[in-house]
Specification:
The complex is a heterodimer of chains A (116) and B (115). Chain A is built from no helices and 12 strands. In chain A, strand 10 and strand 11 form a beta hairpin. Chain A is globular. By secondary structure, chain B is mainly beta. In chain B, 0% of the residues lie in helices and 52% in strands. Chain B is built from no helices and 11 strands. Classes of the chains: A mainly beta (116), B mainly beta (115). Chains A and B meet through strand 5, strand 6, strand 10 and strand 11 of A and strand 4, strand 5, strand 6, strand 9 and strand 10 of B.
Chain lengths: 116, 115
């Protein structure tokens, strides 16, 4: 069965600190997709990154970076030099192929507080 | 602005009632997904439609149903409402049904309160 675990419920950091959000997933499929989404206090869900199971390259986008390791079934997200605007709930998600479509499972989310 | 619209923004109703939530996908997107976000259940995938056809089903209750119309907008119908159905309901769209090859763009959500 598919499962996404975000063990960190809440993280609090001071501005300019680096912070890593952990995501561990379970799947029996060989083809799957992993995502990170951000949900700021305003409530909308903002797509951050997609990674497919065949692409283990790490990615950096500005202050954001992602580390995908199939050996440990982890897809961790690091924010470098955090800012107050990074305060949000961050969700990791896993999509698997289902007949004719895709089924997406979200983790419980990690609430990040960045203090000035 | 993701380009996905959802109406209404807020909905307050009573137990036992039936409501319809509406979603218009981004222009050109053929696939629509529905999600429920509640405090106790988190973000849960409900159902996916692609070009009018149901493609994937998640934890959708039998009291809930959805459809996608020829103009590609979608409606989520919730009936015999219970207090526990109070939640934020999101709609998302993507170009194809292969969510992994296209990211999902989320609408602003409809907040349903059942009293």
């Amino acid at each position: 069965a598919q499962k996404v675990t975000q063990a960190q419920t809440e993280i609090s950091v001071v501005e300019k600190e680096d912070v890593t959000l952990d995501c561990v997933y379970e799947t029996r499929d060989t083809t799957y997709y992993l995502f990170w989404y951000k949900q700021p206090p305003s409530g909308e869900l903002v797509f951050l990154i997609r990674r497919n199971s065949f692409d283990e390259q790490n990615e950096i986008s500005g202050r954001y970076s992602w580390n995908f390791q199939k050996s440990t079934s982890s897809f961790n997200f690091t924010i470098t030099a955090s800012q107050v605007v990074d305060s949000a709930v961050y969700f990791c998600a896993l999509s698997e192929v289902e007949t004719g479509g895709f089924k997406t499972i979200f983790g419980a989310g990690t609430r990040l507080f960045v203090k000035a | 602005d993701s380009g996905v619209t959802q109406t209404p923004k807020h909905l307050i109703t009573a137990t036992g009632q039936r409501v319809t939530l509406r979603c218009s996908p981004r222009s050109g997107d053929l696939s629509v997904y529905w999600y429920q976000q509640s405090l106790d259940q988190g973000l849960q995938f409900l159902i996916q439609y692609y070009n009018g056809e149901e493609r994937a089903k998640g934890n959708i209750l039998e009291r809930f149903s959805a459809q996608q119309f020829p103009d590609l907008h979608s409606e989520l119908n919730l009936s015999s409402l219970e207090l526990g159905d109070s939640a934020l309901y999101f709609c998302a769209s993507s170009v194809t049904f292969r969510v992994g090859s296209n990211e999902q763009f989320f609408g602003p959500g409809t907040r349903l309160t059942v009293l």
